[in-house]
Amino acid sequence: MGDKCSDASEIVTAFLLCTCRLPPWPRICDVDATWCCGELRRPPDDEEAEFIPLITGSVAEFYIDPLVPLASDVDVMFYHNATLAIPRGHPPPTELPAEFHNYVKVYEIIDSHLAGYVYLSLRYLLIQGIDDGKYNYIEYNEGAYLTNIKDFIDNDGDDHGPAVCRDSHRLVVTRLSVDKVRCVRCLSWPSQAADWPTRHRNYGWPDLATLDRVVSNGCDVVGVAHRQCRKHELMGKFQWRMSFSRAEIVLLNSWIPEQQIVYHTLRYFVKIEQLTKSADNSEAGTLSNYHTKTLMLWACELKPRSWWTENLNFVRISCKLLKTLSVWLTDTRCPHYFVNNCNLLDNSFNYKSLASKLLFDEEHLSTWFINAYIGECARESTWNCYAYMGRQQHPGHIKQLTGWPTRSELQKAISQIINWRLDNLMPYLWFTLCNGEFFILSTVSSYSLTLRSCVRWMNDLTKIDERFSVYFSAVALLHVARKMLRNGFSDELINILSTILARNFVDCHSVLSRCRTEQNTSELVELLQKSAVEHLTTYRQLMARDFASVATTVTTDFEALYAYKRGDYQRCLQLSTQNVHTLLLYADVGPDVSTFPEFIQLLDDDIVSLTALGYFVNYHFRRCTTCTNRHVCITQMTLSLYLMTQCQLKLHHSVTSLTQTLDYIEVEQSMHPRQQLCERTLDHLTLKLIERKLMHQISHSLIHWTA
């Protein structure tokens, strides 16, 4: 067994500090969560109404990025923008945020007999005035109660408490499930938590600025009844639960990194020890992440900052907090952090068996961290979460930790893990951005854009990464051009276009004037396509600048494509030839060019026909739902060779020139082994097409020459 590590807890602490990094770039879970929001469908009963999403849970609450993944699912709360809740006795609002509908039903929050659970009674109908934009109201004397039944959520998942949960196979890297939770928005801080902002705090957390932000965000009510009431005929149907997810996001993001790391390790401990599963399998006897979160919120308020930072030892802090949780369980007392007199533990259940599992001393908890946490980091399953498309696999020389390793074995394994992660941060980020490209394009193409969704996309993507906002602008411009080609002008398209151009600091006055007066839509569509290509070129330049060590990216592929579309074959040939030479010289994984409908308008008839053929004959084309499924994409090299071939043929180049291009095609075909052909269908078809075109032209020229 070797000598025991006397300073094991310090080693664990150092490991957590090194691997729970503060990401200066987007995390894959952020990309996945924003994608889930983009997929949220409109309500079926009103074309102008929308569901407004909010990313909650671990994805929104954590800003650290540990080696062991934080999130097991993506939590998305969403509210109908024609429905609003207000505290009982509050006057109806005269102004609402821009996302709300012109007609809004307002429900009063009515207390139930259980703290934290309420009913919603219809009280007002708000109608927005045309002239001043303010809301007038019609009063209901005895309004109906709002049911908590999930009557307009996608029916594509299993019931999961208040959420609809579906396994999202499209979230390629993290493979997260998605919990979509219906709620009703309340813009005011609720009376049920009226004491929270003003209660006495000894150590200044939360500070006044954070308190003000929390209160100004209001709250939500979630459509789920208390466990004891769910089988009741009326309460089970009409009871709702107060939700403070917005407050929790603000509070947890105000924590120092040490507090976030402790919360992460406690969540992981509860999960691995299966403390969320009780012996009798009853919901009342289980722990949840919310109990752990409540424990942390109280600890952050009741402990001074020095308690978390001086002589830092994550194992020791975790031991003390687990002991506090054990006391709570023994006393059947877990006080709600926001609502007075609300106990999160059920008095009908004996938690003592669970409480006993939380009593660890520092030595035993250090052993657990080494075997269960650091040991997991040394296993291949964790590395695969950060592998870039199979390129960066688990390094076999890293020791798989079992039992109690010697000090030297432990330190060597930790050093290898940390170095591996540092070496692969750029591939990890590259794959995140590639994933983001796909979800932006596929979601905009599948679900279309509205003015509200366009604004939301631009705001959310800018928060994640500025590069995404550049790419989204290009996709959105192509989306508007596609819609105009099909349906002509509309006020909605003009408003979307105005938003995109204004956000990108473009003087949109002349463009919008043309939108309203232009009789020939083809000229305006060409203008939008040109602007989109400029954005795509800028995006390529950013990727080439930032990821030269990871992938070879040529920056003029879209520019060449647009030159070909406009008939400027000499310019297209010049750019494509340069791109082919660059990609041959630095043969490496690079970005793809998609054939989604937004990009189809930039491609010529031959590639469009090949894509259509693929959809007809290849099942995987029709089922393409991940960015690693490349059936509907072609590489920059294939596109450049295609454009180069087409331009040479149109410009009547010599047999020598055509033969050289044919050699390039053979080199590119040799780069794709036979086993990859099923993954690169469109690449294969495109290369075969231009190969045959060149061979036909060469044969024809030779026959003509010999004759």
At a glance:
By secondary structure, the chain is an alpha+beta fold. It folds into 2 domains: about 10-365, no CATH class; about 565-705, no CATH class. The chain has 28 helices and 13 strands.
Explain what this protein looks like in three dimensions.
It is a single chain. The protein is 51% helix and 11% strand. With 707 residues, the protein is α+β, with helices and mostly antiparallel strands. It is flat. The model is unreliable at 152-161, 163-175, 278-284, 380-398 and 621-629 (pLDDT under 50). Strands 1, 2, 3, 4, 5, 6, 7, 8, 9, 10 and 11 form an 11-stranded mixed beta sheet that branches. Strands 12-13 form a two-stranded antiparallel sheet. It has 2 domains: 8-366, no CATH class; 567-707, no CATH class. Helix 7 runs antiparallel to helix 8, helix 15 runs parallel beside helix 17 and helix 21 runs parallel beside helix 26.
Which structural class matches the secondary elements? alpha+beta
Number of separate helices: 28
Strand content: 5-15%
The poorly predicted ranges are 152-161, 163-175, 278-284, 380-398, 621-629
Helix-residue proportion: 40-55%
How many β-strand stretches?
13
Terminal residue distance: 86 Å
Give the overall form. flat
What's the number of structural domains? 2
Radius of gyration: 29 Å
